[in-house]
Amino acid sequence: MQSNDILINIVRFIALVFIQVLLLNNINLGGYINPFLYIYFILLFPLDGNKSLLIFLSFLLGLSIDIFEDSGGVHAAASAFIAYIRPIVLKYSFGVSYEYKSVKIKKADTTEKITYITSLVLMHHFVMFSLEIFSFKHIPLLLKSTLFSGIFTIVLTMCTMILFNRKSK
Questions:
Q1: How far apart are CA 14 and CA 11, in angstroms?
Q2: Among the four 59, 94, 132, 140, which has the fewest Cβ within 10 Å?
Q3: Pairwise CA distance, residues 85 & 110, whole Å
Q4: What's the CATH code of the domain at 15?
């Protein structure tokens, strides 16, 4: 990773924590729809970056959200999980181009990008809400929260990606 990438990731990390804590945690539609844009950091972490560092930073990112939200570690666990599973999802979403390290997530084909983002967001939300609810009695609530918050997060993530991709051209 170059020093420019390190600076961009530091700024992205801090900005996403503040946006999530100060703005997005106050959005709660219907009692169970809440966007979690902070995982944008994990989605856009450089592919040539250290995978152990990504897992550690993802844990810190989730822990930061947990501290502000007083949620007992569910964000840290879910973030570390998707950071760990990310190489498998990248290989599934981008195929051979990921193996040859020729993938640029911001410039990838739309279907590949949507597959990648949707997979990681839904996995994150399922793990997070499973740990938060932690009951077999509330499986419909778990699935409803995962689906609707996931859709909201996916739309917000795609809009953010489009917004910042156009700005960088």
A1: 5
A2: 140
A3: 21
A4: 1.10.1760
